[in-house]
Amino acid sequence: MMKTSHFFCCLALLAGSTQRVSSQHKKTAVVSCWLTSPDKTIALQKQTPGLPFTSKDNGFPTINVDPSKTFQSIDGFGFTLTGGSATLINKLPAAAQNALLKELFLTAGNGIGISYLRLSIGASDLSAAVFTYDDMPAGQTDPQLKHFNIDKEKEDLIPVLKKIVALQPRIKILGSPWTPPAWMKTNNSFIGGSLKPEYYAAYANYFVKYIQAMKAAGITIDAITIQNEPLHPRNNPSMLMLAPDQAEFVKTNLGPAFKAAGIATKIILYDHNCDKPEYPLTILKDPAAYRFVDGSAFHLYGGTIDALTTVHNQFPDKNVYFTEQWSDGKGSFANELKSNTTRLIIGATRNWSRNVLQWNLAADAQWNPHTDQGGCSQCLGGITIDGAAVSRNSSYYVIGHAAKFVPAGSVRIASDMPAHLDNVAFQTPAGKKVLIVVNNNAGPQSFQIKVKDQLVATSLNSGAVGTYIW
């Protein structure tokens, strides 16, 4: 296998680049290619020279891009900024931290332009310890939420978020709880149990207070999900919330509480695997709940990504989102790059998702921090922070191949799918076209990109990812 970047993206001679380019494309119709190779020798690097359009069809498999056929708008691409991620970033020396945040949240230079973040409301399983915003001593309750506070988040999360918002003021932020306060639950525990109906009103007010407290700290919460992985009550923390219970909570308490408080934050259902699309469908079929709901969120630890289309097709006026998929600390860079770009960046967006989020922005070299008794012990961050050293992992490049080039407000456009050349195309608010391609063939593959009667020839090695912009 050739290692030169020229082999991957710049086989323009295969399309007859020695021929004269048509006059209407001489100055503007040059395609730039950014590449990541499965062996990481090339990592989100721009290839030179650019690829010119020609009118010659060389007979290779063709990806036809049709900007006249449009689909959903895009809200952004990014990660969950877990409590552990925030702690690791906040511990970096000031200069290193500022440089890293610019790289993560801006697009200039080597920046990847993260445009969407998910936060845990209270602790997640990738926090160092479990907490909520209204923990009480055993046997005590606080239905009026007199003890509610987000002071714990002021240690690391909010200082980091403020710097992020200063860099990227329009970033969208989604909040997801792993558990309510234990005193609200049937088992008085952070793990498992269910929300007691007598505390539905208090828990709805808990969300209201969270959104208001974050707003007072300078952080706008664009959306919330009601419960992370509501069918997985064995994590630490976690809670079981069945679909009828979530529907009841939304229509009788959460939706009315948001309306009464004048809160525009979106309410998103489910937030769990693609194997149970009937969960959000059950709730959306309830007219009283439907009116308060923006859409449904999915993970991909079970089922297939076309579950998003199943839900979209039944309720096309409601949005779908992709909110979590991990990268395995024991997996290979090549497999994680290929798999998650194919299934998430391409698969989720081709199935109507408005965003793609990978799980956990940062971890240390031992995949810490995480909670005991259920916390993920081998979740690889988008970056690894080992003291003051920062390294970049597969999901950094998976997200970077989209976030750097497809800003919020972009629209997915039609593109053909030749065998094993998985791809998705977008048009940006500035009018640029962006095509993201993964070569899932067993060997190198030459192919063409076609727009109307103009073509560009290129090639990707097996497992390589290319983003093409013109």
Secondary-structure topology with pairs:
Layout: H1 5-9, E1 30-36, E2 45-52, E3 62-73, E4 76-80, H2 83-90, H3 94-105, E5 116-121, H4 157-167, E6 172-177, H5 200-216, E7 223-225, H6 243-261, E8 266-273, H7 278-284, H8 287-290, E9 295-299, H9 307-314, E10 319-324, H10 333-350, E11 353-358, E12 362-363, E13 383-386, E14 389-392, H11 394-403, E15 411-415, E16 421-427, E17 433-439, E18 445-451, E19 454-460, E20 465-469
Parallel strand pairs: 3-18, 4-5, 4-11, 5-6, 6-7, 7-8, 8-9, 9-10, 10-11, 12-13
Antiparallel strand pairs: 1-2, 1-20, 3-15, 13-14, 15-16, 16-17, 17-20, 18-19
Description:
With 470 residues, the chain is of the alpha/beta class. It folds into 2 domains: 5-71 and 412-469, Golgi alpha-mannosidase II (Immunoglobulin-like), CATH 2.60.40; 75-408, Alpha-Beta Barrel (TIM Barrel), CATH 3.20.20. Helices cover 25% and strands 26% of the residues. The chain has 11 helices and 20 strands. The chain has helices spanning 5-9, 83-90, 94-105, 157-167, 200-216, 243-261, 278-284, 287-290, 307-314, 333-350, 394-403; strands spanning 30-36, 45-52, 62-73, 76-80, 116-121, 172-177, 223-225, 266-273, 295-299, 319-324, 353-358, 362-363, 383-386, 389-392, 411-415, 421-427, 433-439, 445-451, 454-460, 465-469. The strands form 3 sheets. A 9-stranded mixed β-sheet has the order 2-1-20-17-16-15-3-18-19. A hairpin with a 2-residue loop joins β18 and β19 (454-460). α2 (83-90) packs across α4 (157-167) and α6 (243-261) crosses α7 (278-284). The longest helix is centred in the middle third of the chain and has 19 residues, at 243-261. 51% of the residues are buried. Keywords: Glycosidase, Hydrolase, Signal. This is Glucosylceramidase. GO terms for molecular function: glucosylceramidase activity. Belongs to the glycosyl hydrolase 30 family. Residues 74-406 form the Glycosyl hydrolase family 30 TIM-barrel domain.
